[in-house]
Specification:
mainly beta
């Protein structure tokens, strides 16, 4: 087992070395680049969101013109958030009393102050500057100069290049023309030189674990059929219309600056864009090139995506430009753009300012927020580490929101842990004599030994669950009819932290334990949702 750990550690080190040496140039520079930029013009963000990118994240740059140049585009957040850079979508909507429309018949690629040529967008009068204080470190021998790109006073991206000779920009900046080819790339023409730049992805998203949402009066709109059923009316400070959007009950535009952004809980099997409708006059002024953000397309379980205003961006680089935080000062409604064949279910809308802070308490055995799939410091066996395991009877099933496994363990729950900051999934009880689904962990990898953990004093855990479940202290190869120590845990739709002393188990015996399991056993056909956040010895989950 020690050999396995050494191989695992060495392999991870090699993978990290390869990533640093061969990875995208942009990934190592985001924090360095944006640290010198004014927040008034910064429309990028270096925070990690964990969301998959739907745009081509490719930093190889081509060039044309008299100088055979090679220039790189700095994706300053490079965090994998979904990008709506192509700008080829049009949104259809009704005004719902807000006197504004985004017409499905109007071409979202049409402009007035910018010209459109052969399916591309031309913006003139943009400026590329030399930033004398910012540099991009590629490796110990290569330092590239940064060139911020501005249009209408708004910074769109940064370009970087190794020498001024290959990218001759004066210290005061140079007027350039942009040709947005609507495929995620933009040609930047400065004088006789043209450089192709990749659009950076949107940034600043935050995600949460699956939401077993219990609606609150402070929510803007909320209805969770899993919990509320189909009969309960939704909370409605706003009006939601499927395939259209969500609307205010009053007409006109609204200053939403103090919301800080918007959080949306949903399930979906398709890419959905949320568009800021700014009212008919402003929409026309911007040629329907409205700030928008894309949601994660793969959300089997309810997930909440929180988007700050600055992460709403226009899909086309075309004048006139507007920042998301400026657009938020006058919003008429939020429009939804989704494929007609897609399946998008809205559960809750609330303001960004209402999201809870991330948890700081973690049990001493395992914590999802640490991004680990192993149980540490159990004090049992040679390795004193355990592994998460799952099991069902022949008729029941567990469904996970991510594909399980990694290079070392095809059944690892790590992809779920990393995406949802918890072990989260659903189970369906079968029609067997004793249907069950178990999620649990061993005390010493795959050891067949039982351990005495009486000295722990008990166990603590944080969880959500739509149904009651048991915590079992399972011995190795338990005999048929053997009484296994267990205790019933009540369901909780909000995250709940509990301490369980061994005396609460029946029988109260922790002297022969191989694994600890969370066991769901419901009537045939029942489906339940669960999320586990941390486990530890008694008293360590809250400090």
């Amino acid at each position: 087992m020690n050999l396995f750990k050494y191989v695992y550690a060495a392999s991870i080190a090699m993978m990290l070395t390869a990533f640093i040496a061969c990875g995208d140039d942009n990934s190592s520079s985001a924090d360095d680049i944006i640290s010198d930029l004014s927040p008034e013009i910064d429309i990028t963000d270096s925070s990690s969101s964990g969301l998959p990118s739907s745009s081509t994240d490719n930093s190889s740059i081509s060039s044309s013109g008299t100088n055979n140049n090679s220039v790189s585009s700095s994706n300053t957040d490079n965090n994998g958030t979904p990008s709506s850079s192509t700008g080829n979508s049009s949104a259809s909507s009704s005004s719902s009393g807000n006197n504004s429309t985004i017409s499905s018949s109007s071409d979202i690629n049409s402009t007035s102050s910018s010209s459109s040529i052969n399916g591309s967008e031309i913006a003139e009068g943009c400026i590329v500057k030399r930033d004398t204080t910012s540099w991009h470190l590629v490796d110990k021998d290569s330092i590239y100069r940064v060139y911020p790109l501005f249009c209408d006073g708004i910074q769109l991206a940064e370009i970087y290049n190794e020498t001024d000779k290959n990218f001759p920009i004066t210290a005061d900046g140079q007027n350039c023309t942009l040709n947005d080819k609507l495929d995620g790339t933009v040609d930047v023409t400065c004088g006789t030189n043209t450089y192709t730049v990749n659009k950076p992805s949107a940034g600043g998203y935050t995600t949460s674990e699956p939401e077993l949402v219990s609606c609150k009066e402070t929510d803007l709109w909320c209805h969770n059929p899993i919990i509320d059923g189909t009969d309960k009316s939704p909370i409605t400070q706003m009006t939601y219309k499927e395939n259209e959007g969500f609307f205010f009950t009053s007409t006109g535009t609204h200053d939403l600056t103090d919301w800080e952004g918007i959080c949306i809980t949903y399930t979906s099997d398709t890419t959905v864009s949320i568009i800021l409708d700014l009212g008919e006059a402003k929409n026309q002024e911007l040629n329907n090139n409205l700030p928008q953000a894309s949601l994660w397309s793969k959300a089997i379980l309810p997930i909440e995506i929180c988007i700050p205003w600055k992460s709403f961006r226009q899909p086309r680089w075309a004048s006139p430009f507007i920042l998301g935080q400026d657009a938020a000062k006058a919003v008429a409604s939020f429009k939804i753009n989704q494929p007609s064949e897609g399946n998008f279910k809205l559960i809750r809308i609330r303001t960004f300012r209402d999201i809870e802070s991330y948890r700081s308490d973690c049990g001493d055995l395992w914590c999802a927020y640490a991004g680990e799939d192993q149980i540490y410091d159990t004090g049992c066996g040679e390795d004193e580490r355990g592994l998460w395991k799952t099991m069902t009877d022949a008729t029941s099933s567990l469904t996970w929101p991510e594909k399980l496994g990694h290079i070392f363990d095809p059944n690892s729950l790590l992809p779920v842990i990393e995406s949802y900051a918890s072990i989260a999934g659903t189970y369906t009880s079968g029609n067997g004599d004793n249907p069950y689904a178990k999620i649990g962990f061993t005390l010493d990898f795959d050891s067949e030994q039982n351990f005495d953990i009486t000295q722990w004093g008990g166990i603590c855990l944080s969880y959500k669950s739509t149904h009651d479940f048991f915590v079992e202290l399972t011995p190795f190869n338990a005999a048929n009819g053997q009484e296994i120590p267990r205790v019933l845990i009540p369901r909780s739709l909000q995250e709940k932290t509990i301490d369980l002393t061994w005396s609460s188990f029946n029988p109260a015996d922790a002297s022969a334990v191989n694994s600890i399991n969370f066991v769901f056993s419901e009537p045939a056909g029942a489906t339940g949702y669960f999320a586990f956040y941390t486990v530890g010895r008694a008293g360590t989950c809250t400090r």
